[in-house]
Each structure stands twice: as structure tokens, then as C-alpha cells.
């Protein structure tokens, strides 16, 4: 049995026709992977793959052998549908980032795009480290707070998104080091915006609009305080 965190925000993301749901969008993903050495022999895991946009891109563009895992059954169904429709041989697993049912040292790259904020970070990072080959790389696009927030501010953000905790740059680095990662690099990206790619709005209940409105309100209220970074590191 999977424990799905209490997040109305993630619930709506899974129900809406959202292509991808991480800061920077697919354009940032494309930029990041241009700099990596990926080819047909690369084994890649997308942790918290959502509807599978990144996984599909990596398989299509580089011919890489990609696996996706996500805890949410609606996301998993959409990702599987996408792979079938595009004839992509990508395995999508329904499971938790905190306990991934795959053997050690399997992947050359693991990516998480706006996922670790929602989970138990030490557990998920331990799993990611275990699954990487020696010399393999982990790349994460993750929410990062630029300063410590007041308790009520923190609670507002955590409760709305269902984040496990709010994390500063130095906290992410400490967590990655604790899991065993080396050569940790951090990049701030401001050139690519953080819009979601919302595709269609069929049969959407009014509550969903309220949630999206709240999402954009939080983004503007905490502008400069809540942003994201690109973390990359090596096993
Ligand atoms: C903001 S969405 C990002 C989805 C995708 N990475 C993307 O960029 O489009 C967060 C995703 O993390 C997944 N997720 C949340 N907790 C998880 C967990 N414990 N294990 C695996 N996936 C999880 C959610 O179901 C959701 O698909």
C-alpha cells in the first residue's frame, strides 16, 4: 500500500491535463540534458515522473533506456498512456521514491523534477544513491527557500503544496552529502519561467480553479523567498 501525501495541489495536477509540472518546464529539462553525456546506452530513472513528459523526451531524443516511477495512480495511468501512444518502450512503475523496487547500481542518471519537496528526503536520497551506478549522476530541480520564513509563512506553503519541509540551499547540500553524493553543484535559473504547461480544462470542478488561483497567489506572495535550484551531484 502506498501512502500519498495530503496535497490538494498534487491531486489537481494529476486530474488536470498537465503535460509537465516542475519549475522551468520542459525547456529547462532540455537545457540541462544538453550538458550531460546521454546516449542510447544510458539508463535513466525519472523519480516522481508525473505524466512522463521528461521520460518520454529522454527516450525519444537520445534513445536512452528510461524508467519512470510515481506514487500517484492517475499520474501513472497518464504516463503509461503517453508511452503507449508514442510507441516508447518506457517502463512506468507505481511506487514510492522512498522505497523503489529496483536493484542497486542500475542507472547512469536519475532525475527528480519537483518531487523531493513532497517526500521524506533522507529516505528518497538514500534510495536514489543506492540505485545509481558508481560515477552516475543525480540531477534535481527542486524548490528552495532563499531565507528562513516565519512559522506561519512556512505552514501556509507546506500545507498548500503538501511539502514535507521547506529547504534552503545549504540544507539540500547537507542532505545530499549525508546520502553519500559528491561534487554537488547548484545552479540558479532565472531565464526560464516556472509556468506549468496546462493542456486542457475538460470537466474541471470550480474547486480546481480555486486551487490554481491559490498556487499563483503563493508564487507572487513569496516571490524572492520561494524559488528553485538545479542540483547535480555524483555517486
Ligand atoms: C509537482 S509533480 C512533478 C511531476 C513531474 N516530475 C513533472 O515535472 O512533471 C510531483 C510528482 O511527485 C509525485 N510524488 C509525490 N510523492 C511521491 C513519492 N513519495 N514517490 C513518488 N512520487 C511521488 C506526485 O505524484 C507527482 O507526480
Anisotropy-based shape: globular
Name of the CATH architecture: 3-Layer(aba) Sandwich
Distance between the termini: 30 Å
Instruction: Report the mean per-residue pLDDT as an integer.
Output: 88
Task: List the ions, cofactors and other small molecules found in this model.
Answer: S-adenosylmethionine
Give the neighbour order of strands across the main sheet: 3-2-1-4-5-7-6
Number of β-strand runs: 7
| Biggest sheet record | 7 strands, mixed
Which regions contain 5 or more consecutive residues with pLDDT less than 50? none
Describe this entry's structure for a reader:
By secondary structure, the protein is α/β, with parallel strands linked by helices. It is built from 8 helices and 7 strands. Helix 5 crosses helix 7 (169-179). The protein is globular and about 45 Å long. The two termini are 30 Å apart. The model has no long low-confidence stretch (mean pLDDT 88). The site of S-adenosylmethionine (SAM) has 23 residues, from helix 1 and strand 2.
Secondary structure layout:
Blueprint: H1 8-15, H2 25-34, E1 43-47, H3 53-62, E2 65-70, H4 73-85, E3 91-94, E4 107-113, H5 121-131, E5 132-145, H6 151-161, H7 169-179, E6 182-188, H8 206-221, E7 226-234
Parallel strand pairs: 1-2, 1-4, 2-3, 4-5
Antiparallel strand pairs: 5-7, 6-7
Please sum up the structure shown.
Helix content is 38%, strand content 22%.
Q: What features would you highlight for this structure?
A:
235 residues; alpha/beta; Rossmann fold; 7 strands; binds S-adenosylmethionine
